[in-house]
Amino acid sequence: MKLLLTFLLLGSLEANAAEVRRKTWWKASLVALVTSTSIDAGSSWGRLEANPLLRNGDGRFGAQGVALKAVILGGVAGAQYLMLRKHPHQEKYAAITNFALSGVLTAAAVSNIRRDRYSRSIPSR
Fold this sequence. Notes:
Elements: H1 2-44, H2 63-86, H3 91-121
Helix pairs in contact: 1-2, 1-3
């Protein structure tokens, strides 16, 4: 009987540990998403913006673009939070989505930084 109770207790602890790991990964993915969004916004600040939704009146990325990025980020995080309250077993997919979006935004930031370095290295006439 003691052996059975020990196995049940260990099984419940393992299930609880798995749940904590899932939540930790989802929270870590949100941190990565916020960080990559911030880096992308910082690398775009003051430059000409290709996305018409993110550019201001003179075609540059500024406060309007940052505000829209913040609203979108908040909407994604809020929607995931509400979804995961009803379906906590889907945290894995939310974390994967957030990490993938972080990769895309980081690639955009790297492209912005490289483009800026390239344009500075061209001698002006």
